[in-house]
Amino acid sequence: MRRWNGWGDDTIDFPLQEDALHFLRERVGQGIAMADAAFEDVCNRVPPSRLRPHRLVDISAPVRLRNGLGQSMQDWLRLRYGVPGPLPDGVAFPESSEQVRELLDFAARHDAAVIPYGGGTSVVGHLGAPAGARPVLTINLSRLNRLLDFDPDAQLATFGAGVAGPELEAQLRARGYTLGHFPQSFEYSTLGGWIVTRSSGQQSLRYGRIEQLFAGGRMETPQGTLHIPAFPASAAGIDLRELVLGSEGRIGILTEATVRISRLPQSDSFHAVFFPGWREAETALRHIAQARIPLSMLRLSNPVETMTTLRLAGNKGLIGLLERYLSLRGCAHGKCLLLMGASGDRLPVQQAIGNALRIARNHHGVHAGEAIGRKWKANRFRNVYLRNALWGRGYAVDTVETAIDWLRVQPTMHAIEQAAAQVLHAEGERVHAYTHLSHIYPQGASVYSTFVYRLTGNFNTDFARWRRLKAAVSEAIVASGGTISHQHGVGTDHAPYLHAEKGELGIAAMRQVFRHFDPQGLMNPGKLTGACNEEATDVARKLA
Amino acid sequence: MRRWNGWGDDTIDFPLQEDALHFLRERVGQGIAMADAAFEDVCNRVPPSRLRPHRLVDISAPVRLRNGLGQSMQDWLRLRYGVPGPLPDGVAFPESSEQVRELLDFAARHDAAVIPYGGGTSVVGHLGAPAGARPVLTINLSRLNRLLDFDPDAQLATFGAGVAGPELEAQLRARGYTLGHFPQSFEYSTLGGWIVTRSSGQQSLRYGRIEQLFAGGRMETPQGTLHIPAFPASAAGIDLRELVLGSEGRIGILTEATVRISRLPQSDSFHAVFFPGWREAETALRHIAQARIPLSMLRLSNPVETMTTLRLAGNKGLIGLLERYLSLRGCAHGKCLLLMGASGDRLPVQQAIGNALRIARNHHGVHAGEAIGRKWKANRFRNVYLRNALWGRGYAVDTVETAIDWLRVQPTMHAIEQAAAQVLHAEGERVHAYTHLSHIYPQGASVYSTFVYRLTGNFNTDFARWRRLKAAVSEAIVASGGTISHQHGVGTDHAPYLHAEKGELGIAAMRQVFRHFDPQGLMNPGKLTGACNEEATDVARKLA
Fold first, then answer.
1. Is B448 known to be catalytic?
2. Which residues cross the membrane (chains A, B) (predicted)?
């Protein structure tokens, strides 16, 4: 069964090896044993529902608790410590667009706030219930998961928008196709969730971000149904898909989505290349990106992430051999690991990898074959389970990400890691911070940083510490000129920083769009543009 | 000097060869000699300006006439026959964003409608002045043409948005870069115009549509200045660029635009491939597109366009030889010409062309080398001058375009050409109609049809005939399920058909966005979503 207070299925465990624990003790100190709150105890404290009865709405405490939060650090702290905060008053599981309409009408009649819930994997607070007197209805879309239409000629497939990654890919794979959208949350996150949060998959270099994959669909809004036809391209005015993308539940509920699919590739390979240092690696990466070589993935780890990856890989003997070889080839302390993937027919894949390796070698890159890439691919949705094991040993893991132009990639990475270190230092703690560039563009790259640090066993202390950490790294991003999110979205956690990039006029335009579709303000209130103008003004003042 | 009533510079002429005239006489009959209205006569009939004086506004009749219309068939008929209809009351030529602001404030104070004018190349009626009591100010942006910022690391360049294609490319070329955006209107159309009408260049397969090239910018709106930062990518809420793209002057004036540029390619080659018939050609094209081969262009002419191209190519002897060779290889009557381009470093270009030719050969494609492609490239901005020569001989040329899924490409092409033929047949006239697929996607293609038919020498007759023709082909597009425009935009000519694809809720959302930035309704009133709800409802009823 799905864990109620952690990642993934509770039959799947990735315990930490002694080596890894030793490494962590070295980097941030000995963790304490954590005692999680019990599900039943938390359920017993859930207040009575304030919703009128409705045949589609479940108001039981266990269901409300299981659908009340996501996977942000704030959500984890709340659930693990048993302090969930406001929860929805009921959860509906509609099976059709018509039932979604019925639920929206029900919410409108009773002035209930509505929270659309896909796979529950948001890491930025899209799913929390707002505090206040208004009842809250969460609409879980997991039963809108059917393949509704399939057009191999146009390479289009239409799904219920609540379909999760594995179900979607299984249905396409059976027909010889793939969507090719593989975010780390793939095992649970949903098509609709990807769209309304502007998700980006690990192989977006080939398949495109979800913005490119989303061709059209159907959205139920409080003002009516929005049908968006799927054209190959159009110059006809405002592209309505763009009002849905990134709307984070504020204008309605996407119930059907038509996506652009591809034939399953003959070949899907990942090669590892090591560079002596960051400078060479980043330069090679930029040149590969700007040569527009048709790869599927480019992912560059900085020296600390590279070291961490090798230390946690297990198989000490083999890694030792590899490191001795790399050292002879000039890649020793400070080396950086680049993973490059290509997908498609065998010949173009060979050509693309060959062309990219040629550029890498010009910058002292050392090709290390496909073994590391194969291992990465096999574990790419598994690493996230480590978060459970780390928590059990008293360690928190949080991540933050942005995208920025090439010249500012390295300074931004540095600023983010330093901001985290400073916050933890002030608390007398160390942070193990490392970064990779996860998505690469001719213009720049996404910067994805991970922080591992110790928990205290006290909710208030850990919560306050996380808030300080989150504020410091977010401010570092904004001050560096990066977007507040490249792939996770805004939710509540990033809402105070959105004003810096959209401006007052832009934020007001977004609100105007929301009001058009949702004049009563029912839909996911407080998310994205926030209820938090004051906080935003504070941030703006601080950064000015 | 720029022609006031036709395409391009008046020192450039492409007279029709006797062969071509013979061909046309054969297809649609003998044309009459046309007598154009004289510039001075039309100027003398321009009514006095209703605008208050402003130091930046020129109210002279010649300037108002020269900036009052675009290049749509309606505009041509009006200018050639000397019946221009409503013209702006004045034209301003601002040199900075601040002057644009000043002009918007001036317009707001005097409740003047504002029409942004880029290169004056719109073919769908973006530029006409609305009738009515309100004075009209056209803002010509051609002096906002400087390169403002250049970042080779991020491959970004910021220009004044009024920069025209050749000036833009010249400034980039001097630095070793290109934008790679080459619509047929390239010689006059502007960066800002491309953006606000969602333009697509001939090599968009490599460089992207303008949507992908436009990274950020500055827009002056009646409500204030909208600054859009240029991130490599972002998941932060609604993408404000998307409110600017396709806005067609309704929310403000784009004064600066940051675009994604590329290194000048080592190689920029175009190959011709002939197919025995449409079916083989279209199938090959679809497979090439869906294999995602990194080409720069795919452009497929149907049999009539292929025949027309060969008949008008001049050099009868060489063409005769080619046709005998093609005939031996199975491409005779009904053959179709595919042009495929690739740009970039020499090796990847060779690989891409090689991979595409392999697929073409599987579908009986016959490679005909690079000569035809070179000729096409040399003339790609010249063919449009033929419109002048044809008019002089009594022939009208109009074009229409859409984009649609693969399965409906052929039926849509047929429906469009048939609709035109029927309208002209009812008038006792013939039409020479031909089509090419100009932009190719894995999902489908754009369908671009050209109509050549005879003029009568009478404005009212020709105007009524064109309206019937335009209505018939537009209705055929909507009935086929295509978008009303793939690359030309909406303006006034397509406004009645926009409702069919956006729906009432979508149109209302667009209007809401316009109202947000322009509560007084100053900006390009009547364009895009139209003042013409009734006409739209008529269309919807007809098609239902």
1. yes
2. none
